[in-house]
Design goal:
The protein has three helices and no strands.
Length: 91
């Protein structure tokens, strides 16, 4: 039985939308997980500003910048880390 191209197109669009939603959910979940672990790391004895800066340098500054939803869900804390480390680094 031949497939109707209109139905196939609609099915593919719905699949792509579902995939995009799932991808965003997974990404946000991973970001929250990492942010929680980073906050715990900051409270760990023996982990100071220099070590935290090394983590930021290795993972990339973009992962520690607040954006949209992240700012509403605790991104301010991550921004404070950046402000402190930026002051120590200089221009």
């Amino acid at each position: 039985m031949p497939k109707n191209p209109a139905f196939e197109r609609i099915r593919q669009e719905a699949y792509n939308q579902g995939f995009a939603v799932g991808f965003e959910y997974g990404k946000e979940s991973a970001i929250r997980f990492f942010a929680e672990r980073f906050e715990r790391l900051k409270k760990t004895k023996g982990i100071g500003p220099k070590t935290l800066q090394r983590f930021i340098d290795v993972f990339g500054r973009e992962y520690f910048e607040p954006t949209g939803d992240a700012a509403e869900s605790g991104g301010e804390k991550k921004a404070k880390v950046n402000q402190k480390t930026d002051q120590k680094r200089g221009p």
